[in-house]
Amino acid sequence: MSADGQRGRLLPPIQSPNEFREAFGVSRETMDRLELYARLLEQWQKTINLVAPSTLVHIWHRHFADSAQLLGVARSNARTWIDLGSGAGFPGLVVAMLLGETNHCEVRLVESDTRKCAFLREVARQTGIAVDISNARIETLSTQARIAEVHVISARALAPLDRLFELSAPLFSRDTQALFPKGREVDVELEAARRRWIFESSCVPSLTDNAGRIVQVRALRAKTEDVTP
Predict the structure, then answer these.
(1) pLDDT tens for each residue of 111-137
(2) Which residues pair with 80 in a beta bridge?
(3) Residue 212: CB partners within 8 Å, gap ≥ 6?
(4) What's this model's pTM, rounded to 2 decimal places?
(5) What pairing do the DSSP bridges indicate for beta strands 197-205 and 106-111?
(6) 176 phi and psi, to 5 degrees?
(7) Which residue among 40, 117, 170, 177 is least crowded, i.e. fewest CB within 10 A of its CB?
(8) CA–CA dist 120, 89 (Å, integer)
């Protein structure tokens, strides 16, 4: 059964490429790319702090599966996906590799750290995956000006929801969906965000973390914004 079919249940710990392939039903070609990605991450981690060192032994569950599950709740007809603060590529680069099988969605990664961008570009080069990588801060006008219509926005372990809304609000349209994986403090973050923002949201249980939720956000706007038609 695919992970999408198991929505609402925790996946058993995914400890190997074969277990990941069984859970998410991806092609052999995509698995080859993900395995190369894992090797490059371990190599670069020796000189750049890309992820918490303790998570490297759990990479298939903690990073790859945790990222891949977003596709189960993302809008199926998305043509543009932007990942904010991509870091080591989670979830954006994993999403790009999985969507590479259909080749209908453009994935853009935004990361302000130059060394992390170098890592992302090297992974993209060696795996042959098509992805746009911007070494920039998303809040700069020049960055936003390069981004046209956005269908899906994601960010993982980047900031509290209130700050994420501030960063992503300029990218929102009526067709935009944001997906923000969160932990046990999600209700507190939602309450804090409602002080400044108007939005529609729902929380989908994580497949990889019993306390985790994926916050789906639509129709985001600031409370001070003029909403008169």
Answers:
(1) 999 999 999 999 999 999 999 999 998
(2) 106
(3) 181, 182, 183, 205, 206
(4) 0.91
(5) unpaired
(6) -90, 140
(7) 170
(8) 7
Average pLDDT over residues 72-90: 93
CA distances to 24, 71, 173, 184, 220 from 227, rounded to whole Å, are 41, 31, 13, 32, 11
Of 41, 104, 101, 42, the residue nearest 68 (C-alpha):
101
Using one digit for the tens of pLDDT, what is the confidence trace for 156-181?
989 999 999 999 999 999 999 999 99
Phi, psi dihedrals of residue 110, rounded to the nearest 5°: -120, 120
Domains of the chain: 4-222 (3.40.50.150)
Please tell me the distance from the alpha carbon of residue 156 to that of residue 178, in angstroms, as a whole number. 11
Give the other-Cβ count within 10 Å of 94's Cβ.
25
Structural contact between residues 190 and 167, judged by C-beta atoms closer than 8 angstroms: no
77 pLDDT band, cuts 50/70/90, is confident
Contacts of 143 (CB under 8 A, 6+ apart): 110, 134, 136, 137
Q: Which residues contact 133 (CB under 8 A, 6 or more apart)?
A: 86, 108, 109, 111, 117, 120, 121, 124
